[in-house]
Each structure stands twice: as structure tokens, then as C-alpha cells.
Design brief:
By secondary structure, the protein is an alpha/beta fold. It contains 10 helices and 12 strands.
Length: 290
């Protein structure tokens, strides 16, 4: 399904979500990468908004763990383009700071093991949720190889099955593989704002419901609470998949590293017309040996 005339994906977010100038992008990433400690990890959860909003949370996430050569990035589909569960299996992604190659051997293993997963270039060309993670990962791991996966339309059982199959691939792979889920938390505008509420208050309250399930390492509960309470966590499916895979790989420790929202970042004095929450997590084995 991939367009064979374009083996490399061109940048989609440069100049919008992050600087298009390589030197400025590198300086921003270096400034945002910060963590009081580093722990070998099975998986990470990071936000994907513009760096001015969620960059500090993302930087803390990617500074919190060693980054191996191989990473599987799982994010939500924000467009209707391409298949509902889609990866790229060869080529690379071009960014202002360089090119990142697809881990073709790892992608081939995933395509064999996960029946629902298909190779589809179109699903990735206009999707921002994975691209914004790459400058951080590249800075931490110059020899990065990765597999991008976007997902839509799964239920709890589907997330559990896909997560288990990804874990099987990671377990059998010859080198360490880090899993990364890309998500923002609740999104709230004025159109569906409860009477008498402020967007930032609703974002914090509804995001907290999802964060409680994340803290409890409860992927089915995460899906359930988002559905029951209207939590518009755009990457709830990727997060559930990565949690399921991490648990199958022996992870038993979930750490919330940071949480904020766009209203707090802007420092607005009054109510905001639109607010989004951002959280960062590190998922590891209790011993710290990933």
C-alpha cells in the first residue's frame, strides 16, 4: 500500500510543532531534555503537541530512560488516511536534524506476528503524533532505528491482543527494544463545556480519571473510564496497547513523571477557549533492570 516513489517520509510538523531550523531545533531539544534520574525502562508515554506546550513534559520523559537503538513508536490516527492499524516497514523519516531509518527487520517481525497490522505509507504522511517524538529520541540515541505504528478502532480485547503480540516480537528480537506510546490527555473547548466550568478545570478533572488508571497499570480500566466519562485522550488506544505489551514483558512499575496543561503553560489569567492536558510516564520493572 506504500507509495514506492517515496521511500522516505518528508517532515510534516517542522516549522509548526517544532522549529524547522536544525540549530534551533537542537537547542530547544537540549533545553527540554531534563530528568532528576534515569531508569532502564520497558516503555514510555509522552505527549505530542507543539513543543511550546508539551515539550517540557516530553523532554522529561525522554531524559528519564536510556534509549536503545530500536524503538517502536505507537500513536493515534488523527486523520482518515490509510489503514486503521498501520506501520512503515522500510525507508526512513527525514527531519531538520537528519534522517531516521525504519528498523526493517523489526517491522518485518511485527507484520508477521500482528495479523491486523499492515504496511501503509499513507497513514503516516500527514500524522504528527510520532514525528514530534523523533528529535528527542535522535538526540538521546544517534543510531536510532524505529518502527512507526498508528492505530484506530480497537476495543479492549484488541488492544490486549495487539499488545501481547508486540511483546512477543520484542522478547524474541536480538537487541533491546523500547516501546513509546504517544498521547495527549483530555481536550476541552467551549462547545461542549459544562455550564459554569472552565476548560482548564475540566481538563484537569477528566485527565485525572485517566491518570488514575494509568497509575494503577490498568489498560482496560483506562479505556473504560475514557469512554464512560468522555475523556478525550487521543492516544488512549496506543497507551493501552503499550501498557499491555509492557506488562507482558514483565514491567510492574508505572511512574507519572509530569502533568500539565496548555492553560498552565501559557500562564493565562482568565479562562481559556481551548485547553489540552499533557502527561509523561515511565514504565519499568521494579528492579530497574529492563
Amino acid at each position: 500500500m506504500r507509495d514506492m516513489s517515496a521511500a522516505d517520509r518528508a517532515p510534516w510538523c517542522a516549522g509548526r510543532f517544532y522549529p524547522a531550523d536544525p540549530q534551533q531545533l537542537m537547542a530547544d531539544v537540549d533545553r527540554l531534555l531534563r530528568s532528576p534520574d534515569e531508569r532502564p525502562s520497558v516503555a514510555l508515554v509522552a505527549p505530542h503537541a507543539g513543543y511550546v506546550y508539551s515539550g517540557a513534559v516530553a523532554g522529561r520523559v525522554f531524559a528519564s530512560a536510556p534509549i536503545p537503538r530500536h524503538v517502536i513508536l505507537v500513536g493515534p490516527k488523527h486523520t482518515w488516511d490509510g489503514a486503521p492499524l498501520a506501520c512503515m516497514a522500510d525507508g526512513g523519516w527525514r527531519l531538520p536534524t537528519g534522517r531516521v531509518a525504519i528498523a526493517a527487520d523489526l517491522a518485518a517481525d511485527l507484520l508477521r506476528e500482528v495479523p491486523e497490522l499492515v504496511e501503509d505509507f499513507r497513514a503516516h504522511t500527514r500524522e504528527h503524533c510520532l514525528e514530534v517524538q523523533l528529535p528527542f529520541l535522535m538526540r538521546r540515541q544517534p543510531d536510532l532505528r524505529f518502527v512507526p505504528i498508528v492505530v484506530a478502532g480497537l476495543d479492549a480485547a484488541g488492544c490486549r491482543e495487539v499488545g501481547a503480540r508486540i511483546a512477543s516480537v520484542v522478547r524474541a528480537f536480538a537487541e533491546p527494544v523500547l516501546l513509546v506510546a504517544s498521547t495527549d490527555m483530555h481536550h476541552q473547548g467551549l462547545d461542549d463545556l459544562p455550564p459554569g466550568e472552565r476548560t482548564e478545570t475540566v481538563v484537569r478533572d477528566r485527565s485525572r480519571l485517566a491518570l488514575e488508571r494509568l497509575d494503577a497499570f490498568d489498560p482496560p480500566g483506562l479505556l473504560r473510564v475514557c469512554r464512560a466519562h468522555g475523556v478525550t485522550m487521543c492516544g488512549v488506544l496506543p497507551t493501552a496497547i503499550v501498557l499491555e505489551a509492557a506488562r507482558a514483558l514483565g514491567a510492574d512499575r508505572v511512574e507519572q513523571l509530569d502533568f500539565t496543561d496548555s492553560h498552565a503553560v501559557r500562564g493565562d489569567r482568565g479562562a481559556s477557549d481551548y485547553t489540552v492536558g499533557y502527561a509523561g510516564y515511565r514504565i519499568s520493572r521494579g528492579s530497574g533492570n529492563a
